[in-house]
Design goal:
The protein is α+β, with helices and mostly antiparallel strands. A three-stranded antiparallel sheet has the order 1-5-3. Helix 3 packs antiparallel against helix 4. The radius of gyration is 21 Å and the shape is extended. The two termini are 25 Å apart.
Length: 163
């Protein structure tokens, strides 16, 4: 955390309190002084498993948190939402450039055709390592995506709306 003290970690992070892997997650939380936001029914019945916690550093100003109901068509459990005061963004005077993909002008038919007709098995070569085969697959996929979805560079200014 040498770049910023303000850290929020979210995602599908399932924590099983009895495994070594999860203990490493808790070490990260403890060493970096992160708070855990969770809902009370996020712990599965009869198991020591914590679903989808939100980890927040002490420097983040969390002013509220809620459980939100999510349509069961999309998820098998409800979600947790936290609200942060965004003072750091208002004080930031830095302008920077970011490359974004212009999905409105993408040629998805072409992209789907390229992906569907490529011989993906040709990438996996017994002489290459699994890591190299994965890189080859990723690079080919990104080549097609970059060819079919235009990109443009935008300037992000401190007072821009968050998109």
């Amino acid at each position: 955390m040498s770049n910023t003290p303000n850290v929020v970690i979210t995602g599908d992070v399932i924590v099983d309190l009895l495994t070594d892997h999860s203990h490493k997650k808790f070490d990260i939380v403890r060493i970096n002084g992160l708070k855990i936001f969770k809902r009370t029914n996020q712990i599965l019945c009869n198991t020591p498993v914590l679903l989808d916690p939100i980890l927040v550093s002490d420097s983040c100003d969390v002013y509220d948190s809620h459980v939100i109901q999510i349509d069961r068509t999309y998820s098998d459990h409800d979600g947790t939402i936290i609200f942060l005061n965004n003072l750091g963004r208002l004080q930031n005077n830095t302008t920077y450039k970011r490359m974004i993909w212009d999905y409105r002008n993408a040629d998805f038919d072409k992209c789907n055709e390229l992906i569907a007709t490529f011989d993906w098995e040709s990438i996996s070569n017994a002489e290459n390592s699994m890591d190299q085969n994965c890189k080859n697959c990723t690079n080919t996929f990104l080549e097609y995506v970059n060819d079919c979805i235009p990109q443009k560079e935008v300037t992000i200014r401190p007072n821009d709306k968050i998109f």
